Sequence to fold (293 residues):
Amino acid sequence: MSIRADYLDYQARRDKLVSGPMGRLWQNQESRYVHPFRIFGNVWYVGDDWVCVHLIDTGDGLLLIDCGNIGATAMLVNAIWEAGFNPADVKWLVLSHGHLDHIGGAAFFRNMFGTKIYLGAPDAQMYRERPELSFVQDADSAIATIEAPDVEIHDGDVIQFGDTSVQFYLSPGHTMGVISCFFDAHEGDRTVRCGYYGGFGFNTLQKDYLIEIGDPEYRTRQIYLDSLARTRDEKVELFLGNHTINNDTMARRQRQLEHPDGPNPFLDSEAWAKYMDKKRDDLLAFMADPKNN
Ligand SMILES: [Zn+2]
Fold:
């Protein structure tokens, strides 16, 4: 080897990464920066325009739901400061599931601030036994790590974070350790019920993927449908996205900016069930498509 050979090796890896179907997700992440904003009361948006990160001010420390893409941690830290909070006050980090685009800041927050990490138990097991299913390798960062959680979340757990009590369920499908959760947010005298579903993508329902993980009968697809059905009738007044596409985060934010004195565009009692039904219909169509079977 030589310095020159090392460089050519780097360049070849970089070319391969950025020309791949997900290549844009690793380049110029700062172009996806979103100025943080208050969604409602003590719930803030500190994610980018693709993957959501939510910050809940519990009155006794900050709770983060997800921590951004690998390589986007500086943006997240900046967003937390810009929102008027101190990143050192993030006591708890709940991960929606174990994929690389939601776990980027986990090691940073744990190492810098002692933040406690929570992850659905099946994805903690995935990290131990099949770490490749985190897709951490897709970031092509030999430095990135997947962090074993401090607390494994089980179906039905209720966990208190400061003044906020969070009801958790496991919603397996996208990964087996996807969590969904429900909690109250407050603004003045008003309390609303927030709902969050931690992973909707069908990338992990593709036949090649399912065959590789040992599910040649595609049972995971039915498990996903069952998870949607189980949470569909929860009372949710404020639907928080996992990716911004789920709840039209950016369009709602735009309405909020244009009509600062109008009704809060994030308060929408129908959005949750509507999206659950849409994903159910999309998945049924996906399952019926011969090319997926
Ligand atoms: Zn995912």
Notes: The two ends are 46 Å apart (CA to CA). The chain has one domain: 32-292. Residues 97, 99, 174, 199, 201 surround zinc ion (CB under 6 Å).
